[in-house]
Design goal:
With 197 residues, the chain is α+β, with helices and mostly antiparallel strands. It contains 6 helices and 5 strands; from the N terminus they run αααααβββββα. It is globular.
């Protein structure tokens, strides 16, 4: 165990925090929460959703993520449709990654050297997670907003999240429109919820 003092899990990250410090704080808080909460370790999706809402979402720009995944189709969607797509996509990602969150135990996170120009507004914080001796590349793309740095894309094992979903979203909108995409995401979330239940 590290001898350094831990920041209380309830402490908010400063909006002015540098991108690498933000990622260290948030990942540390999430790992501490999972290691100390049996409901999270058991994969309880409702507890995981609460954890994500409290510890991760304040530091993400999920609307930007969804807008980039939708590409040109974002402009075709009404404000209500955009809100629905953002909400269903967020829930899909939480459900998709809930198993990974539940597996947090003794992983080691190595924060690779952070390099960015002082005036940069879009940066990547690179990390390497070691799990049972296997290093996994996990990078975070952040954009500077009026409310500080926010994560809007993830790279897991060389695959960026936004790129991974762009074609699927485009196909759904081309074939069924924006409402069809919403129905597809909603149905997928229901399937995942039933599979967990």
């Amino acid at each position: 165990m590290a001898a350094s003092a831990q920041t209380p899990a309830s402490a908010a990250v400063s909006a002015s925090a540098q991108p690498d410090a933000l990622i260290k704080q948030v990942t540390g808080d999430v790992m501490t929460a999972v290691k100390t909460d049996p409901a999270l370790q058991s994969g309880d999706v409702n507890h995981i959703i609460t954890l994500v809402n409290q510890k991760i979402l304040p530091y993400t720009d999920f609307q930007r993520t969804t807008r980039l995944v939708m590409g040109r189709y974002w402009r075709q969607a009404s404000a209500q449709q955009r809100d629905q797509v953002v909400e269903q996509f967020k829930l899909l990602l939480i459900r998709t990654y809930s198993g990974a969150i539940a597996q947090v135990r003794n992983q080691q996170i190595e924060y690779l050297p952070f390099r960015a120009d002082p005036g940069a507004t879009d940066v990547v914080v690179r990390t390497r997670v070691t799990n049972q001796g296997q290093p996994i590349e996990l990078d975070y793309r952040l954009g500077k907003t009026a409310n500080g740095w926010k994560v809007y894309d993830l790279n897991v094992l060389g695959a960026w999240l936004i790129q991974a979903y762009q074609q699927q979203f485009a196909e759904q909108v081309q074939q069924h429109g924006v409402d069809g995409l919403i129905q597809f995401l909603t149905a997928r979330n229901q399937q995942l919820a039933q599979a967990k239940g």
